[in-house]
Design brief:
With about 90 residues, this protein is of the alpha+beta class. It contains 1 helix and 5 strands. The protein has one domain: SH3 type barrels (Roll), CATH 2.30.30. Helix content is about 30%, strand content about 35%. A 5-stranded antiparallel beta sheet has the order 3-2-1-4-5, covered by helices on one side. A hairpin with a 2-residue loop joins strand 2 and strand 3.
Length: about 90
């Protein structure tokens, strides 16, 4: 299964290699944005929300979709923690 995580492009790192700094859940990391440029200059992408998968921005999304996806991912993480706690309690 492939999972794209919403992140916001906050700055350009390298024009030549289409690298930008993307913030994902408060963590910043370099991401290749070449798939989403669509013949636009890389600077035009700053501030946009994208789906990030293994270091690549795969597509642009709007802020509402990013917020919904982040909420769902948070809920899934909470559910996973709950399931792990239940499994741990059952094994003791």
């Amino acid at each position: 299964m492939c999972l794209g995580i919403p992140g916001r492009i906050v700055s350009v790192i390298d024009d030549a290699f289409a690298l930008a700094m993307v913030e994902v859940g408060g963590v910043r990391r370099p991401v290749c944005v070449s798939f989403i440029l669509d013949n636009r200059p890389i600077d035009a992408c700053v501030g946009e929300w994208v789906l990030v998968h293994v270091g690549f921005a795969m597509s642009r999304i709007d802020a509402d979709e990013a917020a919904r996806t982040l909420r769902l991912l948070e809920e899934l993480g909470e559910m996973q923690a709950e399931l792990e706690a239940m499994q741990s309690a059952a094994s003791h």
